[in-house]
């Protein structure tokens, strides 16, 4: 059994796979079975290498000293040969012309070699991970992964060309000038084509999320089934999980053309508000092509106009509880519309340029790309479909549904005032939506906008999941009223305020630091500098846990469910779902941040050990 040569923690020189370049690394571990060393580069990259690819730093120093000691004698001998005085003048002129040609050829070789090295450096930079979820509209960093093997493949392609150049230089078999120019042009075109192929390959997602093709295919059917199951369960007199499955309604009762027409009217009304020339226009983050898209920030104005329209309808005795009476039909209409919209989005994405495709939805697999979204920013003129659906129809529709449930409770139970539980649920969730619309600009830095394409996942989530699942507590209270005392209501209100304070102050602290780290008002914040030029906050909320905004989200979600009491677990589905969602997003953030920040992220994790829950997780 071979003995181990290098110890853990030893600094050595390691060869980069597929190249002849050696870099300084640190040995972290050794596998006795595979006989591979795990080494860490300066930028945090870890690779498993054979012992033959690792050398001691002393060997490089010895080589350097030997080459420097032998070079003077070589130079002197070459000079003595060229300075021979016994040659005739004619031969001397010939030798001088030959030496000039030799110098020209040598200069050209250096230029060609420099061009090849430049392309290698470019491709190595392409392989480095770049930044790229957080919660909607909270502005967390996002990142994409690059395909490291593309660098190795390019270097292997260019290496034979460099070897041929060295042989031609050694034996003087240089082509004529005209042929050389042609070869130069051809080689440059070949290099550019290779770089384009690498960029195209690097845009493909390295790992598939959500269980890959099988997982996304399952989710396309599982998500609508979950929504319909929850609504059917809440509609029962006893919404216990033991009463499974709930009684299924007739298929013809799930669809009504009038309901679908009302849904389309709502969707296009919000589209009209979006197109109004009110609110400021801002630029989003730069795309892969360097271009920045324009966005109209008028979500809060659209909310005010929607409130005015609803007030007008109520003034003219319009029965808003119509939403409650046809709630299931509205959910079916929204699901059908989101499916049609997803199909349209995928078909149009097949004709867009490569640089406009989403990094996470460009896998080449139809089902996966259809689910995650193939095109990054689908637009009809200046109308951005993804940005519009993110906050307008679904999020504002959530508030309208809650209001309809409040009116339905008053009508069904003959109440002159809504119950205290219903008031708390409506108030808490109204605050959440208004906060999102007021801070609309922050959504431009989230993964939903910068990384995820617009496909079935976001279309269904924005138009169906948000309005019909997030309003589950208000829908539950209509058929299952729960009485709570004022002291309990006060305690729940304090809990919601604590969650909202953590959520908003943490996001504001991060956004202000990102805009202007040198702001004197932020002088009390300490941070760890990173190679990207950004800093990782280690004081304030971000020094308490790594994702304090997630902690605030979960506390608020619990406060929304507590007014429903403890008779059934169904109103707490949102809390359970929210915890699972944020843990998934947190794990994805951890992976991306480790790739993006390298050693700086490891230092940050040592400084801030807890992810979401202090002293727990």
Explain the layout of strands and helices.
Elements: E1 11-15, E2 22-31, E3 36-40, E4 46-49, E5 54-55, H1 57-82, H2 89-127, E6 130-131, E7 143-144, H3 149-171, H4 177-202, H5 212-235, H6 257-275, E8 280-283, E9 294-297, H7 299-315, H8 322-325, H9 327-349, H10 366-372, E10 379-380, E11 383-384, H11 385-412, H12 420-438, H13 447-450, H14 456-469, H15 472-479, H16 486-515, E12 527-529, E13 535-537, H17 548-561, H18 573-597, H19 599-607
Antiparallel strand pairs: 1-2, 1-5, 2-3, 3-4, 6-7, 8-9, 10-11, 12-13
Quick take:
By secondary structure, the chain is an alpha+beta fold.
The N- to C-terminal Cα distance equals: 43 Å
Number of strands: 13
Strand order of the largest sheet: 4-3-2-1-5
Tertiary shape = globular
Look at the structure and give the mean pLDDT. 78
**Class inferred from helices and paired strands:** alpha+beta
* Largest sheet, strands/sense/barrel: 5 strands, antiparallel
Number of helices: 19
Radius of gyration: 32 Å
Low-confidence stretches: 68-96, 112-159, 198-203
Strand content: 5-15%
The percent of residues in helical segments reads: 55-70%
Q: Estimate nothing, just give the exact number of structural domains.
A: 3
Biased composition (Basic and acidic residues): 99-109
GO cellular component, one term: nuclear inner membrane
EC number: 1.3.1.70
Protein name: Delta(14)-sterol reductase LBR
């Amino acid at each position: 059994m071979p003995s181990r040569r290098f110890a853990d923690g030893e600094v050595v020189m390691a060869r980069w796979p597929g190249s002849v370049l050696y870099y300084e690394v640190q040995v972290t571990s050794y596998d006795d079975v595979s006989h591979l060393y795990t080494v860490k580069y300066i930028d945090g990259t870890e690779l498993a290498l054979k012992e033959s690819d690792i050398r001691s730093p002393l060997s490089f120093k010895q080589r350097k000293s030997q080459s420097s000691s032998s070079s003077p004698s070589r130079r002197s001998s070459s000079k003595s040969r060229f300075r021979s005085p016994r040659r005739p003048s004619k031969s001397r002129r010939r030798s001088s012309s030959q030496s000039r040609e030799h110098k020209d050829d040598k200069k050209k070789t250096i230029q060609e070699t420099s061009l090849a090295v430049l392309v290698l450096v470019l491709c190595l930079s392409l392989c480095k991970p770049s930044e790229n979820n957080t919660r909607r509209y909270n502005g967390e960093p996002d990142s994409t992964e690059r395909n490291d093997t593309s660098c190795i493949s390019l270097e292997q392609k260019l290496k034979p060309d460099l070897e041929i150049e060295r042989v031609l230089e050694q034996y003087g078999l240089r082509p004529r000038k005209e042929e050389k120019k042609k070869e130069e042009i051809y080689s440059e075109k070949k290099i550019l084509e290779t770089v384009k192929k690498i960029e195209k390959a690097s845009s493909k997602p390295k790992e598939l999320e959500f269980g890959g093709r099988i997982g996304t295919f399952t989710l396309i059917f599982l998500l609508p089934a979950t929504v319909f199951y929850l609504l059917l369960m809440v509609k029962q007199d006893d919404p216990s999980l033991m009463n499974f499955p709930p009684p299924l309604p007739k298929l013809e009762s799930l669809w009504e053309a009038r309901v679908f027409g009302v849904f389309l009217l709502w969707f296009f009304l919000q589209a009209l508000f979006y197109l109004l020339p009110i609110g400021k226009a801002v630029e989003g983050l730069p795309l892969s092509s360097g271009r920045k898209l324009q966005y109209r920030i008028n979500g809060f104005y659209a909310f005010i106009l929607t409130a005015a329209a609803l007030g007008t309808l109520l003034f003219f005795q319009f029965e808003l509880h119509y939403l409650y009476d046809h709630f299931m039909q509205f959910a079916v209409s929204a699901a059908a519309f989101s499916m049609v919209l997803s199909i349209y989005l995928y078909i149009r994405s097949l004709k867009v340029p490569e640089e406009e495709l989403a990094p996470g939805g460009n896998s080449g697999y139809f089902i996966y790309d259809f689910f995650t979204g193939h095109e990054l920013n689908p637009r009809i003129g200046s109308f951005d479909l993804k940005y519009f659906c993110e906050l307008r129809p679904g999020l504002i529709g959530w508030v309208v549904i809650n209001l309809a449930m409040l009116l339905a409770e008053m009508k069904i139970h003959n109440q002159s005032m809504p119950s205290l539980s219903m008031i708390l649920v409506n108030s808490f969730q109204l605050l959440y939506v208004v906060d999102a619309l007021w801070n609309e600009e922050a959504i431009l830095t989230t993964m939903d906008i910068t990384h995820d394409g617009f496909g079935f996942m976001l279309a269904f989530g924005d138009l169906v999941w948000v309005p019909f699942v997030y309003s589950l507590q208000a829908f539950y209270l209509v058929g299952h009223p729960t009485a709570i005392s004022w002291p309990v209501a006060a305690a729940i209100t304090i809990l919601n305020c604590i969650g909202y304070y953590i959520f908003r102050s943490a996001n504001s602290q991060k956004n202000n630091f990102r805009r202007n780290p040198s702001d004197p008002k932020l002088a009390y914040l300490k941070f760890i500098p990173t190679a990207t030029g950004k800093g990782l906050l280690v004081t304030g909320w971000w020094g308490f846990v790594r994702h304090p905004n997630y902690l605030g989200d979960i506390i608020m979600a619990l406060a929304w469910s507590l007014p429903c009491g403890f008779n059934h677990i169904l109103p707490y589905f949102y809390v359970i779902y929210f915890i699972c969602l944020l843990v998934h997003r947190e794990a994805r953030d951890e992976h991306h941040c480790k790739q993006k920040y390298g050693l700086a992220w490891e230092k940050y994790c040592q400084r801030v050990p807890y992810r979401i829950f202090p002293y727990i997780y």
